[in-house]
Specification:
The structure holds three protein chains of three kinds. By secondary structure, chain A is an alpha+beta fold. Chain A is built from three helices and seven strands. By secondary structure, chain B is an alpha+beta fold. Chain B is 28% helix and 20% strand. The longest helix of chain B is centred in the C-terminal third of the chain and has 18 residues. The termini of chain B are far apart. Chain C is α+β, with helices and mostly antiparallel strands. Classes of the chains: A alpha+beta, B alpha+beta, C alpha+beta. Chains A and C meet through strand 6 and strand 7 of A and helix 8 and helix 9 of C.
Chain lengths: 90, 160, 601
């Protein structure tokens, strides 16, 4: 499983991506593990209390997790997870 | 202890909010030509620099003023004040200031120069980028000096 | 008058006359300014069968009532005219400082008519207006034009001008202001070129006044705070620029690749905002009164593509990047600089080069057509060289400068032109994001994202969320965005202020400035009226429901790779509801009842 980081998320993690041989079971477990690894700034970006921070955008294989099962979205080893802060343009 | 209106041109994005805030505060309308702060843009270099009165301790405008209209304020620290009641509009202050920070406005028959808005400069409030800072004289260059100190810190941390 | 100046300037280049008129107060109240006011002037004063490049066309430069105040990021203006590209009412929006300067000089609108016998420029210093000889300036790039005009007028004059692109009457020519800002789409630069008008220099020392200063300042402080606390309006755009969109669109599977043959570009990260910030970015830049500063001052050191200027924006990084199969950000930035200098639309030109690349790879054109250049996807040097040739109007470049529709049609294959109503679609693949497809198809000026930026909800989670893959609810979403944007454009505000504020804050600031009470409903109605008015004009130009469509490729050919593999756009599920919600018949014609409701009959 590959997790990709973008924009300011990269400044919190210091890297552009991380690979996992085995996937954590759910998105919640993944984000908790990443927060443990990368620290407070990442945790604050990802979580608002126990919920997903509304200002983070997470795609699993291109699908926003808000249309999957949010933090309970199941993950598998072939998945690609992309993590963005809210960004914009035109 | 006195406050200094510090300029950080490296943070200026050329938005002119300072000019708008200044003219609105002093004139009640949006007329950048009347602003006491002027931000100049060089498009080919993509850089803008705001300029306003630096409240010189030993001010040329005060020296040449025949009536004392331009004077160091006795009520407020670090301010060159303009007393319009005794000003004869000779414009010698505008001739004397080497920075061009005082100008004569014919329409209103006034000398335009920064007065720091009674100690709460509007340009500082409206600058979205921190390019203008109203800061205690002791901390005047802290942000800049510290930013560079941080680079040395990082460099030394890597090696030691 | 408050907000508005009360004066409109009319210049007849044929007769060489300058007339000051009182701004029509009713017009101002109803259409605000910029897009709305300019559009109404074109509708009333230009006969529908007028050739866009003839002296009978008119071109309007108009700021809005908010322009020139410190309403946050509200310093914009529009260039409005009959479009050389596709005959619609072109309303091309730009920032910089030109719009506010027009207000300080005393004008709500500058209407230019006729044609000068020889190249001229306009010099407007408050109420002194001169038409001056531009013989020595014609032919120069936009930065050089700006310097030359300033040398003869005022070193701080704000200059809007055309480059060789507009002089060559390219239907994708821009008007540039402050050297790096573009009124980009629909060929507005060619209208200036057709009038022999090289530049407009403005210097204003007057004021914009406000009806209720206290109410306005309170509304502005509130709006500023909302934008500054928004992750996008407050920090994201300043840090990364619009180019930050590359990766999120790609990871969504909707980054059009190789002339929309695919929707995923594996090396997209090399051309995104993160890379730009690390490599080419010198510092951020803000337009007049802006608190967002999305502009990028940039520099390329690589000697092959060396240059200095502003940009690229997302759309440009896409059009010369993924759309051409290119991931070299130095070269893309150089192409962007060239477009600014020559005065050509980066979206349209990049997409046209991509179209040419597809024609080349399919053998429809060969090296004999392309001046010996191997114009294949991924050929970086060819992309830059063709951009330069398009600017010069040289060889195959002259054909590219006609835009992809005319190019592809000339070779018998218009289906490879990725356009709606002949205007190139921008950087969002409608097969991966359904709602933006409806916006492209129904857009009054053709392929366009800004006038109905549903991406904010479908991809960017800005305030609300809607699944990009579904069609339910998209008709209503598109209509809301289209109406709001038309009103916002006409007030002089920047679209990006909607990363923070919305109709309530805009209506409040507008009311406080002008002294005319605008409720949220009235504000949205203004937008709806403008949208319908633009639609009515299009009907006179022969546009029908058949033109409210997307290229076949997007309706029939699924995306080949990436997260949106297998998707097509399902326009048919959205269009009927769109017409119905708009109060139009099933042919897309506004009903009598709707026109009466909007006072458009």
């Amino acid at each position: 499983m590959t997790v990709r980081f973008f924009a300011t998320i990269r400044t919190y993690t210091g890297e552009t991506e991380r690979r996992f041989d085995d996937a954590p079971a759910t998105l919640r477990e993944l984000l908790t593990a990443l927060a443990a690894r990368y620290g407070t700034l990442f945790r604050r970006a990802a979580f608002a209390g126990a919920d997903l921070n509304p200002e983070i955008i997470i795609l699993v294989n291109g699908r926003n997790v808000l249309y999957l099962r949010g933090l309970d979205t199941a993950l598998s080893r072939d998945d690609e997870v992309s993590i963005f802060p809210m960004v914009a343009g035109g | 202890m006195a406050k200094v209106l510090m300029i950080h041109p490296d943070k200026c994005t050329g938005c002119h909010n300072c000019e708008l805030a200044c003219s609105f505060e002093h004139e009640g309308q949006f007329r950048p030509a009347a602003s006491r702060v002027q931000a100049y843009t060089w498009e080919r270099e993509g850089m803008t620099v705001p300029m306003m009165c630096q409240q010189c301790d030993d001010a040329a405008c005060v020296k040449v003023c025949p009536t004392g209209a331009m004077h160091r304020s006795v009520t407020r620290a670090n301010l060159v004040d303009w007393d319009e009641r005794v000003c004869i509009r000779c414009k010698m202050c505008t001739v004397a200031c080497p920075f061009g920070n005082a100008r004569y406005d014919a329409a209103s028959s006034s000398i335009f120069k920064c007065d720091t808005c009674q100690g709460a400069p509007e340009c500082v409030t409206f600058c979205p980028n921190g390019a203008l800072e109203f800061v205690d004289d002791e901390q005047q260059v802290r942000s800049r000096k510290k930013a560079y100190a941080a680079k040395f810190k990082d460099a030394f941390q890597e090696v030691s | 008058m408050f907000g508005w100046t009360g004066t409109t300037l009319r210049v007849d280049l044929t007769k060489g006359t300058v007339t000051r008129e009182a701004t029509d107060i009713g017009l101002a109240h109803t259409y605000l300014g910029a897009r709305g006011m300019g559009g109404k002037i074109i509708l009333d004063e230009v006969a529908p069968d007028t050739d866009a490049l003839s002296p009978a066309n008119k071109i309007v430069f108009s700021p809005g009532p908010l322009t020139g105040t410190f309403a946050p990021s509200a310093g914009r203006f529009e260039v409005v005219t009959k479009a050389p590209l596709n005959n619609v009412i072109a309303g091309s929006n730009s920032g910089g400082a030109f719009g506010p300067e027009l207000k300080y000089a005393g004008y709500d609108a500058l209407i230019i008519e006729g044609k000068a016998a020889k190249p001229v420029y306009l010099w407007i210093k408050n109420d002194e207006v001169e038409i001056r000889d531009a013989g020595a300036i014609w032919g120069h790039t936009t930065p050089d034009t700006t310097d030359l005009v300033r040398a003869e007028t005022d070193e701080d004059a704000k200059v809007a001008c055309i480059g060789p692109g507009g002089e060559h009457l390219s239907p994708i020519a821009t008007v540039m202001n402050e050297m790096h800002r573009a009124a980009g789409r629909s060929g507005v630069g060619a209208v200036m070129g057709s009038k022999n008008l090289k530049a407009i220099a403005v210097f204003g020392t007057g004021a914009v006044t406000v009806a209720d200063p206290e109410r306005f300042k309170t509304a502005v402080m509130k709006a500023r705070k909302m934008i500054q606390e928004h992750p996008v309006g407050g920090t994201g755009l300043k840090a990364y620029g619009t180019d930050v969109l590359v990766n999120i669109l790609n990871q969504t599977g909707a980054l059009p690749t190789r002339n929309y043959q695919d929707g995923y570009f594996p090396t997209a990260d090399k051309i995104g905002g993160e890379s730009l910030a690390a490599k080419q970015l010198v510092r951020p830049k803000g337009c007049f009164s802006c608190i967002i500063s999305c502009g990028r001052v940039t520099k390329v050191d690589n000697p092959a593509y060396a240059g200095f200027g502003e940009g690229p924006e997302y759309e440009t990084a896409w059009s010369f990047g993924a759309d051409c199969g290119i991931d070299d950000l130095d070269a893309i930035t150089k192409a962007n600089f060239l477009c600014n200098e020559y005065g050509l639309d980066t979206i349209s030109l990049g997409s046209t080069i991509a179209c040419a690349m597809e024609l080349f790879e399919r053998g429809i054109i060969t090296a004999k057509d392309t001046d010996g250049v191997q114009l294949t996807f991924g050929n970086v040097a060819a992309m830059v060289e063709m951009t330069r040739k398009a600017g010069e109007g040289e060889g195959f470049g002259a054909k590219l400068a006609q835009g992809s529709y005319r190019l592809a049609e000339s070779y018998g294959h218009p289906e490879y032109s990725m356009t709606c109503k002949k205007q190139e679609m921008p950087a969002y693949d409608p097969r991966g994001v359904q709602g933006i497809g409806l916006n492209y198809a129904t857009g009054n000026r053709g392929g366009c994202h800004v006038r109905g930026y549903t991406i904010a909800i479908e991809v960017l989670q800005n305030g609300a969320v809607m699944d990009p893959r579904i069609t339910e609810g998209k008709a209503g979403l598109d209509i809301t965005f289209q109406n709001l944007t038309a009103a916002l454009d006409s007030a002089g505000a920047c679209l990006f202020s909607t990363f923070g504020i919305g109709a309530p804050e805009l209506a409040e600031m507008l009311s406080a400035v002008t002294g005319v009470e605008y409720s949220v409903d009235e504000f949205m109605k203004i937008g709806e009226r403008i949208w319908n008015q633009e639609r009515l004009w299009n009907l006179t130009q022969g546009y029908t429901t058949a033109d409210d469509t997307l290229p076949e490729r997007l309706l029939k050919d699924p995306i080949k790779t990436g997260p949106a593999k297998g998707e097509v756009n399902r326009l048919g599920e959205m269009l009927p509801e769109y017409y119905q919600l708009r109060g139009w018949d099933d042919k897309g014609v506004p009903s009598k009842a709707k026109l009466k409701e909007l006072s458009l009959n």
